[in-house]
Design goal:
heterodimer; A: 519 residues; alpha+beta; D-Maltodextrin-Binding Protein, domain 2; Dipeptide-binding Protein, domain 3; eleven-stranded mixed β-sheet; B: mainly alpha; MetI-like fold; 13 helices
Chain lengths: 519, 326
């Protein structure tokens, strides 16, 4: 009797579980306009402080809540509408003018812009944001220096004058970026400490309703927004670290948009009739850095030899599953003034061996390679490179470290060799090359230093002539391509996956989603 | 013993967090900052001080109820943890309920039907439960029950995106929805709870089941069981009163240890299921090199673990009057 009772209990439990599970309907297949747009992001926002944010999630959360003076324009590329980082459209400023030598700009603000708390946006807010930001630690002050911003003043409540220390081709591109989001001076002046790490108050299309950095952020329409009402009244960002979960969610409509999926996941999703993959070439490059203060990497011939030992095609087709493109310069394809001049590298072990012999390393050498283990594709890249280098007699010892440990080592320039990814904050070759390869820069972890390159970079920065600047940047690339400070592995493609019924996605080279564009 | 254990755990957690060569200051100011900016942030965070002094400052502040601020949220860590703790409690309690509901009958049945098909089935379940890593099991459950069979809702937290949270009474979502009579919310939250709770409970099911089986078999061999049978006691009385009660003593001890395991497991399960609890909060803190939440979590876990063990000792004494501590 007891045994029957126990069996009955197990049976009942199974029945209850089946009932509970069975009562659940399949994932929603359609999206009404009243339903929220759910987007799966790969990580949590590190901070919502507009001056400190620098990750994919934080930056997008800022961009959809705040306005800047101007924004990036959209252009037609074939049938597709894309954002461009080289042309600008009005945002808080309806129009702007500059003097003849482009050192003084005047921005005319719209009169109907309000923050989500109802406060009007005026020149005082712009001046406060710029002046405070330029004095504070963070991206605004850093970028203001890059953009040669000297002073900011209010001409009247709806006119702002910005004076530059010298003409700077990057200025407009820089002030359209999210660190130049205009804050409500009345509120921001009172907030202190880390308040803005988890709060937002802007005049953009959405306002942040709630945030749990570990799981989700909820946005609702800003009732005071001056522009067209976004289609989705509510947007929910879900922070889902596991790429396979993001894949399953978008495949079944659990979320309507998913980002940063693995090449394998994208290959699988490509077969699904329910989702659309929007793929564009990003300016996100992956390279193999070699510390030039660490022999034998101080020898140009050694670097060139290794450049001929990279199985470029295998990395792109077998590791990245075609979600990347070949590079022919350290400046990404798509960035202004890019050129492949001086690039002669292909997989050629005979040539690699000859160069190594010429460098005095005919029998090879041993070096330590530090690997950021949080990037699964880099782990595969490293293994393939290790095998290829071994054919030259070069032993590559792989030391795996965590992401945060890797970032610290990178910042200290202490690694002998490493794989790094770089997506320039500003879409400008001077900025890009300056940070990666100018001598003495904190971000030049390869410690590459070439006085000619340094001189040309400075010359190009201050040259007001666009054609001459292009010539200078292309000359720099030719030198760099020959000297091979990096093994330029590949340039990532950027894919956003949308579930059926969701449209309106617009690609911007900064890879940040504009939620208001979705329909 | 509790105080040295708690202090020991805290010291180890504190040192482990800081010996990893990651720099929270760099995480705060960004990779493109200058060395001077990074250094200024290091000074602001007190990272330039010797380790023992940093630890001393932390403990001193903690004694005054100040457990520090999270770099990521900018809020006091205790406030953050308090906001998320109910979700973790909900998940842990649900997994305990599942574990007990499955492990108890299966453990008893496998002891009573030793070497039968049900015993082998229980053996397989148990082996599977202990050998599968939690995060992997979670992904597998999502793949089968959500993606393939469409039996559970999307693993997007504790509630469907169309529902608003009910006004907090107990702060446990399922309970609050029930108490408020918001049936749709109750049903949605219950369905969201099933899969993560099931994933979290598997290890506990395995351990409890095997322990109960072994303990029951051991007790069944005792003379007093034979005596009880000889006296004509019913099977129910023999198994449930004489056998089960005595077999439960080691099971309760193991159960206490498993509660600590559940808290650790929640860190993984919450991350996989986007569950808005303490586990996912601590995971994001670890990834951001946000020291304070990790250290406070380790400290609180040690306290909780010690308290649970104390409770286990008390319960053991209640079950078995022969057990005394004084």
């Amino acid at each position: 009797m007891l045994k029957k009772a126990l069996r009955g209990t197990v049976g009942s439990l199974a029945a209850v579980a089946a009932l509970l599970l069975g009562s659940v309907s399949a994932p929603a297949a359609t999206q009404a306009a009243s339903t929220p747009l759910v987007i799966a992001y790969p990580g949590s926002p590190r901070t919502l402080d507009t001056w400190l944010a620098y990750d994919l999630t934080s930056d997008a959360m800022i961009l959809n809540v705040y306005d800047q003076l101007i924004t990036y324009a959209q252009v037609k590329v074939g049938k597709q509408t894309q954002g461009t980082l080289n042309a600008y459209a009005p945002m808080l400023a309806t129009h702007w003018t500059s003097n003849a030598d482009h050192t003084v700009y005047t921005f005319y603000l719209r009169h109907n812009a309000k923050f989500s708390n109802g406060d009007p946006v005026t020149a005082a807010d712009v001046v406060w944001t710029y002046q405070k930001g330029m004095k504070a630690t963070g991206n605004l002050s850093f970028l203001a220096t890059e953009g040669a911003i000297k002073s900011v003043a209010a001409v009247n409540p709806y006119e702002v004058k910005i004076t530059l220390s010298h003409p700077d081709s990057m200025f407009l591109s820089i002030i359209a970026m999210y660190p130049f989001s205009i804050l409500d001076a009345k509120v921001a002046a009172k907030a202190s400490g880390t308040y803005w790490n988890s709060h937002e108050l802007g005049s953009g299309p959405y306002e942040l309703q709630s945030l749990d950095p570990a799981s989700q952020a909820v946005f609702v329409r800003n009732p005071h927004y001056w522009g067209p009402k976004p289609h989705y009244a509510k947007v929910i960002l879900k922070f889902i670290t596991d790429a396979s979960v993001r894949q399953q969610l978008v495949e079944s409509g659990g979320v309507q948009v998913a980002l940063a999926l693995s090449p394998l996941a994208l290959q699988t999703l490509a077969r699904s009739p329910l989702v659309t993959e929007h793929t564009n070439l990003s300016e996100d490059i992956v390279f193999f850095g070699m510390n030039e203060q660490d022999p034998p990497f101080n020898n140009e011939l050694v670097r060139q030899a290794l450049s001929y030992a990279v199985p470029y095609s295998t990395l792109i087709h077998q590791v990245e599953l075609n979600q990347a493109s070949a590079m022919d310069s350290s400046v990404p394809i798509g960035m202004p003034d890019h050129t492949g001049a001086g690039w002669n590298y292909s997989y050629n072990l005979t040539k690699a061996k000859a160069l190594l012999a010429q460098a005095g390393h005919a029998k090879g050498f041993t070096f330590t390679f530090t690997l950021d283990a949080s990037q699964p594709d880099w782990v595969q890249d490293a293994t393939l490179l290790q095998a290829s280098f071994a054919k030259l007699g070069v032993t590559m010892k792989i030391a795996q470290v965590s992401d945060s440990e890797y970032q610290t080592l990178l910042n200290a320039h202490k690694m002998q060799a490493y794989i790094e990814q770089w997506d320039s904050f500003v879409n400008d070759p001077g900025y890009h090359l300056g940070f990666l390869l100018a001598g003495g820069m904190a971000t030049n972890a390869a410690n590459y230093s070439n006085p000619t390159v340094n001189k040309l970079l400075t010359q190009a920065e201050f040259d007001p002539n666009t054609a001459q600047r292009t010539r200078l940047y292309q000359r720099i690339q030719t030198i760099i391509n020959q000297q091979a400070p990096f093994l330029d592995l590949y340039q990532y493609k950027w894919t956003v996956v949308t579930y059926q019924g969701v449209s309106g996605y617009v690609f911007y080279p900064d890879q940040l989603l504009r939620f208001w564009a979705f329909k | 013993m509790m105080v040295p254990v708690i202090l020991g755990v805290f010291v180890v957690a504190f040192l482990l967090a800081r010996v990893i060569p990651a720099n929270p200051a760099l995480m705060v100011v960004g990779l493109q900052s200058t060395a001077a900016e990074v250094h200024a942030e290091e000074l602001a965070l007190g990272l330039n001080l010797p380790l023992w002094l940093q630890m001393w400052h932390f403990l001193l502040a903690a004694l005054h109820g100040n457990f520090g601020l999270s770099i990521v949220t900018g809020q006091p860590v205790l406030t953050d943890l308090a906001q998320r703790f109910p979700a973790t409690v909900e998940l842990t309690v649900a997994s305990v309920v599942i574990a007990v509901a499955v492990a108890l009958p299966l453990g008893i049945l496998s002891a009573l039907y030793k070497d039968s098909w049900i015993d082998w089935l229980a053996h397989v379940i148990s082996l599977t439960g202990v050998s599968m890593p939690l995060f992997w099991l979670g992904l597998l459950l999502i793949m089968v029950f959500y993606s393939a069979l469409h039996l559970v809702p999307a693993p997007l937290g504790d509630l469907g995106v169309l529902y608003a949270q009910p006004p907090p009474i107990t702060h446990i979502l399922v309970l609050d929805a029930l108490l408020e009579g918001r049936w749709a919310v109750f049903w949605s939250s219950l369905r969201h709870l099933i899969l993560p709770a099931l994933a979290l409970s598997t290890g506990t099911i395995s351990v409890l089941m095997r322990m109960l089986r072994a303990s029951m078999l051991d007790v069944l061999r005792h003379d007093y069981i034979r005596t009880a049978r000889a006296k004509g006691a019913s099977a129910w009385h023999v198994y449930m009163v004489h056998t089960l009660r005595n077999a439960l003593v080691p099971v309760v001890t193991i159960f206490g240890l498993q509660l600590g395991y559940l808290l650790g497991g929640a860190v993984l399960v919450e991350t996989v299921f986007n569950w808005p609890g303490v586990g996912s909060y601590v995971t994001s803190a670890i990834l951001a090199s946000d020291y304070a939440p990790v250290e406070v979590f380790a400290l609180l876990s040690a306290v909780l673990y010690s308290v649970i063990n104390l409770c286990v000792d008390v319960v053991n004494a209640a079950i078995d009057p022969r057990i005394t501590y004084f």
